[in-house]
Amino acid sequence: MSFDLSAELLARIQFAFTVSFHFLFPAFTIGLASYLVVLEALWLRRGDAAYLQLFDFWKTIFAVTFAMGVVSGIVMSYQFGTNWAKFSDVAGPVIGPLMGYEVLTAFFLEAGFLGIMLFGRNRVGPRLHFLSTLLVALGTLLSATWILAANSWMQTPSGYAVNAAGQYVPADWWAVIFNPSFPYRLVHTVIAAYLTTAFAVGAVGALHLLRNRDDRLARIMFSMAMWMAAIVTPLQIVAGDLHGLNTLAHQPAKVAAMEGHFETYRGAPLILFGIPDDAAEATHYALEIPKLGSLILGHSFDAEIRGLKAWPREERPPSLIPFYGFRLMVGLGLLMLAVGLWSLWSRWRGRLYTDAALHWAALVMGPSGFVAVLAGWFVTEVGRQPYTVYGLLRTSESVSGVAAPAVGTTLVLFIAVYFIVFGAGIFYLLRLMHRGPQTGEEGLEEAPIRTAGITPAQQIEATGGDHGA
After folding, report:
1. Would you place residue 146 in the very low, low, confident or very high pLDDT band (cuts 50, 70, 90)?
2. Quick one: pLDDT at residue 390?
3. Spans of all domains in the chain
4. Got the DSSP string for 195-240?
5. Least-confidence region, from 222-231, 266-275, 362-371, 373-382
């Protein structure tokens, strides 16, 4: 078997494939866990069985998605030893503890209370069950926090020292964790996860409203999802702008690639579309809006924006993927905003549940969050090149001494196995969503705890506490 691609490029493709597949699941479970908290809180507060039926429906989807996320994450972590051993050796003293903290504080929390959340409502009582759901949601957020701290350190390293062996070791853990890009990346990623969940839930609600506009469970799902879309999408646009300004300050070459600028400008245009050409050092067929690039990035029509020619060729990231990935992410964000505003208009007119055009739009936008988060990560990771640890450790210095045929063979095997195993899991999830929650159907366990005419909150007060708690 012969390969024209280098072992380094194949290793990058393999890691990109596995991490992209993996991130689809946490991007959903982070938001879905919080949605489950809200549903159970509303059930406890109002005693309305509809919220419990929705909780049981979405917790099944959460359990399957969580399991696939764990399995894909284990596979991904092995590549640090197989394909990126030099990176693991040099950056391991910083990255390793952060990954360990994620397991100790987040994964144990999620795994420890997941069983109670799925099966324990009638065994531990409503309060402790709700606490378990809350802790699972907290675990997903803690997991994102540690993983993003590690990734952000690779983007904007700080708080480190270099030991005699040439390794990067922590000198100030606070500076390592709260590195310059971490707060912006954490907020931007978590909001993206919430929007991903909102549009997935909204699509399921829209599908069932198109079948039956009087379906109460579909109405609740759709209404909650559209509130999230309308309120959170503008916040995400602001968070994205702040994250972009932070990237301009610390990784300006990445921003130049995202914008498609090769020349340095005062009063830089905003390039809407074009074809970046690294070899020719130009963006062909550029459709521009004069001076708007400087206004967005520098908040001034005359702000200076450096182009890729300001760096030597060997220090520049490739421009094609960041350029198009950024536009795909922003374009989807604007469509999300449009759907959110459309839903407010329909809600105000009393047509939220009867506007078939809105329902079709929400259904089409169902996968948009997943596509947007992947596009954003492609921009982040490709834009960091040619470094694994920005400005410190080059990608060419990080790869293991594995031959290209070996890496290529495992890449092909990964692709085949992932599409079979995870393809079956995703197909099952889509079938569950297509079937939808069934009115009057119980969830994964016994019937909900309730007495005729008494809400869960009233029952807790009457019994004096939790069952078995």
Report:
1. very high
2. 93
3. 1-179+403-469, 186-398
4. HHHHHHHHHHHHHHHHH-TT-HHHHHHHHHHHHHHHHHHHHHHHHH
5. 266-275
